[in-house]
Amino acid sequence: MTTSDAVRDPVLDQDGVRLIVDGETATVTLTNPAKRNAQSPALWRALVQAGRSLPGSVRVVVLRAEGKSFSAGLDRQAFTPEGFDGEPSFLDLARGSDEALDAAIAKYQDAFTWWRRSDLVTIAAVQGHAIGAGFQLALACDLRVVARDVQFAMRETSLGLVPDLTGTHPLVSLVGYARALEICATGRFVHADEAERTGLANLVVDREELDAAVTDLTAALLTAPRDAVIETKALLQGAADRSPSEQHVAERAAQARRLRDLAGVGD
Length: 267
Prior knowledge:
alpha/beta; 7-stranded mixed β-sheet; 3-stranded mixed β-sheet
């Protein structure tokens, strides 16, 4: 935690998640370094609440983690018969109906989807291990700034499972189908150099420079007018699903809205 963060009251601080808001910037921190920020349904609910608690003034959200690891992935206690206190174990969920299991997973995914909201730019500051659910949480953000000691891995397939926390779409978008399949099927580590080369990481820095690099990137993102960033993000997010001609139409419509706004002309 930075000195400036330390003097601010958190908007949320529960179940291994802390949210601090500073004007146009919010910082969501994973706060269980003793367990390498392993994830649980309670943590996912706290992440959902963090997204819902953001004031409308926030433009950039930084996701960071305390300790040596960003997140070592799912807490294996989820697969024990007893599970977590007050929670159905994953084994119990597997014995339930298809509808109940689907609904449970959908709720878990909610912790990973809001990071792509068009009115926000989200940055994951990643150090050490980002494995499984940790990798998918980093992938949920728009941008990733990583330390040189980063180790990404998608271990679900190695455990007989699949990555189901919304990480497959951004992974394929960033590195392509063939490399994404190889990363998932082998469960191998992706280190900083490969992450930067393949587009998983926007920037690689020394560990001690991670916070400063994220601060600089945040400041740069806040220089452009908010509405222009929102329109641009929406254009880029939809580009893969549009034909070139459809994208051209979308660009024209977005630019018309911006020009009218700058000219003070209503729709």
